[in-house]
Write a structure and sequence with these properties.
Order of helices and strands: EHHHHHEEEEEHEEEEEEE
Largest sheet: 9 strands, mixed
Helix content: 10-25%
Number of helices: 6
CATH topology of the largest domain: Umud Fragment, subunit A
CATH class of the largest domain: Mainly Beta
Distance between the termini: 58 Å
Shape: globular
Structural class: alpha+beta
CATH superfamily of the largest domain: Umud Fragment, subunit A
Number of domains: 2
CATH architecture of the largest domain: Ribbon
């Protein structure tokens, strides 16, 4: 399908919506600078140099020659529902197609320690976060991409189910950076994140993203009687401001079910 757009920003925003990707996520998957696409969306970059068009087209899965003419020609992609920033995984699933026994991606990961859950290369910002490197691995006749597993943690299933109220097969570990959630969560703490709990059911702490910036760890509180539903985004650090947004603007990555802290 060929469609002429008025501006580069319109092309980028339309394509991100079709792909269900945030600007940073698309840039990382396309192997270009993290802020490159976000700068276009935020009107900080009005045009792209000719030597950068190919990278942008790759990230958006568009024909580069058409993109250089401000035309949007898709490379065989169908629109898909907006995914979670971090996909779920099942460490107990049989993945007969993977050729790598140790695994490094969230979709095709096998624990070296039976029953362990992975810590992935994603840092939840209590300030600014980081989504780490997305890598590609050959699986059967195709490639899969995902976040690198940087460590394994053994947490008994009974604890996760009964105490943390988390699903063992949808749980992973992430590091906290920044101090906006201090003193509840300190820089360097690890948190247990249940990816299956990706809706606002209770007023508690979640891993969230706006689809453009890196993931954050924040306390969410539903605003009573709001229509459309609004939510307060709260930093536990008393020096920082609470702000309110429409719930539909947030992606809830998962609920924070526990903390692993240094003593």
């Amino acid at each position: 399908m060929l469609r002429r757009m008025k501006t580069l920003k319109e092309i980028v925003e339309k394509r991100l919506e079709e792909l269900g990707l945030g600007a940073v996520e698309a840039a990382v998957q396309g192997g270009i600078e993290r802020t490159f696409i976000r700068d276009i969306v935020e009107d900080k970059k009005k045009s792209v140099r000719s030597d950068k068009v190919e990278g942008l087209a790759r990230a958006l899965r568009l024909d580069p020659a058409a993109l250089a003419r401000n035309e949007m020609v898709r490379m065989g992609d169908e629109p898909r529902p907006r995914p979670k920033l971090i996909g779920s995984f099942d460490p107990d699933a049989d993945d007969s197609g993977s050729e790598d026994g140790q695994g490094y991606t969230r979709e095709h990961w096998h624990a070296q320690i039976k029953g362990a859950i992975p810590e992935i290369d994603v840092k939840l910002g209590a300030g600014e976060g980081a989504i780490g490197d997305v890598i590609n691995l050959p699986v059967s006749s195709s490639n899969v991409s995902g976040h690198q597993v940087v460590a394994e943690w053994f947490i008994p299933d009974t604890y996760l189910r009964n105490e943390a109220r988390a699903s063992p097969s949808h749980t992973l570990i992430m590091e906290v950076v920044g101090d906006s959630m201090y003193p509840t969560y300190s820089p360097g703490d690890r948190v247990i994140v249940d990816l299956s709990q990706d809706r606002l059911v209770a007023d508690t702490v979640y891993a969230i993203s706006d689809g453009f910036s890196e993931p954050q760890i924040k306390r969410l509180q539903r605003v009573p009687f709001s229509e459309p539903t609004e939510v307060r985004i709260i930093s536990d650090n008393p020096n920082l401001e609470t702000f309110t947004v429409e719930l539909s603007r947030l992606t809830i990555v998962g609920r924070i079910c526990g903390r692993i802290a240094r003593m």
